[in-house]
From TrEMBL:
Stated name of the protein: ABC transporter permease
Organism domain of life: Bacteria
Recorded topology in the membrane: Multi-pass membrane protein
InterPro entries: ABC_transp_permease, LivM-like
């Protein structure tokens, strides 16, 4: 047991280092910084490059990596985050996600995507306590964390800039009125956070012994959970959250195996957020409205689209494309249509109920697996498995999400993200192998397994989805859900059961996510859990924001741009994601309400 405790402390130390940077930026700017994840991988790759390729001593490489990461953080904040953070927290968050994609793929272009052995610049197993072996690297890492925390504490308590950071974190408007240069404070916070991200990435790679340009995502996600667990905005909470998470994770792996790691991480997060909203040491959010989507509500009005445009769009997508398009266009079109179905359903939660659920991959996976298992093992037809997949996803996702609707502020988005990842991890435990031989749709014994048939099926389902969304929005139910997103306090005062309507909106979105998952399963004829990633969830969110967060038909436009248009860059996959990131940044910078929304 002592061995497991030590292992948890060592791993938790890395999480703590990363969580401090995430919590610092959140406290000062009220932004969830996904770009911080990429600094873990980038810092590790730069250290590998300096030590292995340039043959530099580790103690020279270390400050160089910190300086490069800090400088990049400064550029990112000035060019991308700060222009949006004050007015549109959701846009700023999506921009950091876009920057993360650019950094990860830029690192792959520079270093290639292969895994490499991280140089043993410090001994990793020369010490032992009982049967537990550890190394000088672990001791140094613990010492650096201790030094960082002591210096940060003294800096924040006694330093002039540190006090300015604390004042800005407490009340940005009041800090401005007191003459504090908030812009400079935010720049400094980003610089410190980015440097700490690079430092954490170096020691994590030294701990596990390998490095890869995208290796920062997993450690970054766990560090983010640690920051939320301790309380976003609390540096002490970030450290406590990191060590608590590391210890719980170590004991969970010891008792249940490594396959349960993600379940343990996110179940712990969900329990803490439900029992103590705001984290262990953070403040309970006073905002009752969801700040991420709430900033979009009322920021603009949908563009007035003439009826002939709808008719023309229907003819183009439903008639001309299937008749004249080649196999490649039809195959791409099926992906566009499926993501449009999922995103259109999600507008009920994000656009009407005002909840930015970041874990849509969970309901998609539930729908895909329900449909596949029903078809493969119970031999149900696709036409029966499809609606059952949607109903199953709605019920299961709603039951699992039921405890989180009392969580407020950014934490509800974090909780849904954790729920989505935990759902996929549970599915991985229950069905460890992929499912092969999923039957394709058929009518009268005739298999509909051509790109043309898939496209027509998906198009019909999309039309039905949009009709249902239109009917919901015009109904009394839709107006009540919209009142929750527009002003939760007023809705509560009017007797609206806010939690129940949020849960209902989430169930509707989960239903259409399950439908989309079923379509994916039967058209791929094979699924496994690696398909249902955090990137899938964020892609759905991005599609919704691009078209207009409250517009179901905007999801079609967003899907065409982000799924269809990106196929134009298929010939250069290395640059594809980078261009995607740049497009996303430009959209949220110049069309923050979405392509189909104009300023009020």
């Amino acid at each position: 047991m002592l061995d497991t405790l030590i292992a948890g402390l060592l791993r938790g130390n890395v999480y703590a280092l990363g969580a401090v940077g995430i919590s610092l930026v959140f406290g000062v700017m009220n932004v969830v910084n996904f770009a911080q994840f990429s600094f873990f991988g980038l810092g590790a790759m730069l250290a590998w490059f300096f030590v292995v390729q340039l043959q530099q001593p580790f103690w020279i490489a270390l400050p160089l990596v910190l300086a490069i990461c800090a400088a990049l953080g400064l550029v990112i904040n000035i060019a991308v985050v700060r222009p949006l953070a004050k007015y549109l927290p959701l846009a700023a968050m999506l921009s950091t996600y876009a920057v993360a994609q650019i950094l990860d793929n830029g690192s792959q272009l520079a270093f290639s995507a292969q895994f490499r052995s991280f140089p043993q610049v410090l001994p990793t197993s020369n010490l032992h306590i009982g049967n537990m072996r550890f190394g000088t690297s672990d001791v140094v890492m613990l010492a650096i964390t201790a030094v960082v925390m002591i210096v940060m504490s003294l800096f924040l308590k006694y330093g002039r800039t540190g006090r300015a950071i604390r004042a800005t974190a407490q009340d940005q408007e009041a800090a401005l009125q007191m003459g504090i240069p908030v812009g400079s404070v935010q720049n400094i916070s980003f610089v410190i956070a980015s440097g700490l991200g690079g430092l954490a990435g170096i020691f994590f790679s030294l701990y596990i012994g390998v490095v890869n340009p995208t290796s920062g995502m997993n450690i970054g996600m766990t560090a983010f959970v640690a920051a939320a667990l301790g309380g976003l905005g609390s540096l002490l909470g970030a450290v406590v959250g990191g060590f608590v998470l590391g210890i719980l994770e170590a004991f969970g792996i010891y008792w249940f195996g490594d396959a349960s790691r993600q379940i343990i991480v996110f179940v712990v997060l969900l329990i803490v957020l439900v029992v103590r909203p705001g984290g262990l040491l953070g403040k309970v959010p006073l905002l009752t409205a969801e700040p991420l989507t709430g900033t979009f509500l009322g920021k603009g009005r949908p563009l007035r689209i003439p009826r002939w445009v709808w008719a023309a769009g229907f003819v183009v997508l439903g008639v001309l494309v299937p008749i004249f398009a080649d196999t490649y266009v039809l195959t791409t079109g099926t992906q566009v249509l499926i993501y449009a179905i999922i995103a259109a359903g999600f507008t009920v939660t994000a656009g009407q109920a005002g909840v930015l659920a970041l874990g849509q991959a969970g309901p998609i996976a539930i729908g895909a697996y329900i449909s596949a298992l029903l078809s493969v093992h119970l031999h149900l037809s696709f036409w029966l498995a499809l609606p059952l997949a949607g109903i199953g996803a709605a019920i299961i996702a709603s039951v699992l999400a039921s405890p989180i609707w009392g969580v407020k502020g950014h934490y509800i988005s974090i909780a849904t993200l954790g729920l989505g990842i935990a759902i996929v991890a549970v599915i991985q435990l229950i069905v460890p192998q992929g499912i092969y031989g999923i039957p394709v749709p058929s009518i009268g014994g005739i298999e509909l397994n051509t790109p043309f048939a898939y496209y027509v099926i998906d198009f019909v389902v999309l039309v039905l989805t949009l009709l249902v969304m239109w009917r919901i929005r015009r109904s009394h139910l839709g107006k009540v859900i919209s009142s929750v997103g527009s002003d939760e306090v007023a809705a509560l005062a009017s007797g609206v059961r806010v939690r129940d309507y949020k849960a209902l909106a989430f169930a509707i979105s989960a239903f259409f996510a399950g439908i989309g998952g079923s379509l994916l399963a039967h058209q791929y004829t094979y699924i496994d859990t690696t398909m249902f990633t955090m990137m899938m969830s964020l892609l759905v969110v991005t599609i919704v924001i691009l078209g207009g967060v409250g517009l179901p038909y905007g999801a079609v436009v967003g899907s065409i741009v982000l799924i269809g248009a990106m196929e134009l860059l298929r010939f250069t996959p290395e640059w594809r994601i980078i261009v995607y990131g740049l497009v996303l940044i430009l959209v949220v910078r110049f069309r923050p309400g979405g392509v189909l929304v104009r300023s009020s």
